[in-house]
Amino acid sequence: MTWYFDSHIHLSDPEYVSDMEFILKEMEYLKLKACCVSMNFESSLQTLELAKKSNLILPFIGIHPEYANDEFENISDLIIKNHSRISGIGEIGLDPTYTNNNDDVKNQNHVFETLLSFAEKFNKPISIHSRKSLDDIFQIMTSYNTKHALLHWFDGSKKQLQKAMDMGFYVSYGPVMIYANDKQTLLSKTNESQILVETDGPVKFSRCFEMKSGQISFIPSVIFCASKILGISFDEMASLLEKNSNSFLGI
C-alpha cells in the first residue's frame, strides 16, 4: 500500500480548525500523511497538540522569517523539550520581504542558523522558506548537513535548481504546478530522487482551484500532474514520492 505525503502544510492555521475532524478522517481515507509546519511559538504549540490526535500528522515546529523577532527563546526551549516528539523543524528560513533594516537581516540570519543547529543536533529534517533568498541560503547551508533539507515551494532559476540538486536538497512542488508552465519545466529538470509535493495550505490557488485554500485532497491532483510531466504512471509517481518522503523524514 502506497502512502501519499503532503510535505508542507499549516494545519494549525485557524482556517482548518472547524474542519479538523473531517480532515483527519480524510487523511485516513486517502492514506495521506502531512508534515504540519509551524509559523511561530503559538502555532508550534498548536501543531504539537494536533499531532496528539493522529499519527498521520508529522509535527514540524519552528519560526517563519516573518516572526524572527518574536519569542525566539520560547521556541528554542520548545524544541529542546520536545525533540523526541517532533518530526522536523520548520518552517524556517530567510525572506527580505520581512526586513526593514540591517538589524532585522542579522536577526533573521541568527534565528535561521540557530534553528539549523538544533536540526543538526537532534538529527531532524528541516522545511525551508527561501523566497528571494536562495543564494544566501545556499551559502549558509554549506556549514550544515543538508541531507534532510527541503526547499519548499521551490521558485528559483534553473541554475539555482541545479545548485540545490548538487547540494542534496529536496525541492517541493504544489498545486500551482498544475497550471504554471515554469513550475512544470523546473519539475522536469529536478532529480527524481529529490522531488516532494506539498499544498502549503491555507495558501489559496487560482485557476482550476477557484481561489480555494490548499487542502490535503489536492495532493492526488499534484501527483497526477507530476506523473504526466515525467512520463510515468500515477502509481509509479506515488511510489517515488513515498520513497522520497520517507528518505527526507529519515524513516
How would you portray this structure in words?
- This protein is of the alpha/beta class and 251 residues long.
- It contains 9 helices and 10 strands.
- Helix 8 packs across helix 9.
- It is globular.
Largest sheet: 8 strands, parallel
Strand order of the largest sheet: 1-2-3-4-5-6-7-8
Low-confidence stretches: none
The helix/strand order is EHEHEHEHEHEHEHEEEHH
> How many DSSP E strands?
10
Q: Please give the radius of gyration in angstroms.
A: 17 Å
- Write down the overall mean pLDDT: 96
Shape: globular
Helical content stands at: 40-55%
What is the terminal separation in angstroms? Answer: 16 Å
Portion in strands: 15-25%
State the helix count.
9
SS class: alpha/beta
Q: Can I get a quick summary?
A:
By secondary structure, the protein is α/β, with parallel strands linked by helices.
List keywords for this structure.
251 residues, alpha/beta, eight-stranded parallel sheet, 16% strand
How is the secondary structure organized here?
Blueprint: E1 4-9, H1 20-30, E2 32-36, H2 41-53, E3 57-61, H3 72-82, E4 88-93, H4 102-122, E5 126-129, H5 134-141, E6 149-151, H6 158-167, E7 170-173, H7 181-188, E8 195-197, E9 204-205, E10 212-213, H8 219-230, H9 234-249
Helix pairs in contact: 8-9
